[in-house]
């Protein structure tokens, strides 16, 4: 049976704590799945557009300036963090992003998000958002 | 002096292409595969950047934005501190010229700012209406902006835009 995106979110939140949002978007910024925790307000379309722009720019920085392969992008704020990784879902280039608040542990976030990104390359999620 | 020029206009109008034609450096490119049919494979989601040396005193930063309006956050960033703007319009495509009015407002294009409109894809069947419709929009905004037919793939054609912008600045100042 295929998992729902909500189940994936809950699973991740149980490990990481304080996860506010998880989003899967196509590389060109169309949201596929989003889950936003509780009362937290995020516009899904805006989040998808921002992650695709930032990832494309990070990609350009990695390839054209650092001469290396792109892996992930992290934004730190005074209260939390947004972490973006590339993935493929259903044969499409996609971006998986996570917003966390409180005292996020970058190492853990990176570990679990990269693992989830790998899982998504072969997964088929339940159609329910 | 280093000046900032923006290339704006609808999806597929040739913004990324013209910056590649004009730039003296390898451009920064943020195109990705489009997941919907937009008549081409790739679309810009971040920013295009190229660099053009005009002469000893002047260099231009060439900034291309995504045509899709959902990326207006990139437009906001590029909009700051602009010296000049080039609007590209795809010939024979009503959405493309209809958007010109919105772009003029969004980028706050005014009389004192060098601005040029380039109609692209004119080799794929010419439509006289596009020029006429654009001129009507310009009249409504009380702007007097030169409108050319160009091919962004050709360096000489693309250069016409840059030469016009420079000449316009001399006329303004
Ligand atoms: N035949 C013809 N093709 C053109 C002309 N101008 C541009 N093209 C082609 O049309 C396409 C334009 O694509 P881009 O330069 O990516 O367009 P863009 O404005 O950057 O589009 P977005 O980034 O998606 O908003 C390219 O494949 C060009 O080779 C033209 O005048 N004639
Ligand atoms: Mg482009």
UniProtKB/TrEMBL annotation, chain A:
Gene3D superfamilies: Dynein light chain 2a, cytoplasmic (3.30.450.30). It holds the Pfam family Robl_LC7. The lineage of its organism: Bacteria, Pseudomonadati, Pseudomonadota, Gammaproteobacteria, Lysobacterales. SUPFAM superfamilies: Roadblock/LC7 domain (SSF103196). It comes from the Bacteria. It comes from Marinicella sediminis. Residues 15-86 form the Roadblock/LAMTOR2 domain. This is Roadblock/LC7 domain-containing protein.
From TrEMBL, chain B:
It comes from the Bacteria. Transmembrane segments: none annotated. This is ATP/GTP-binding protein. It comes from Marinicella sediminis.
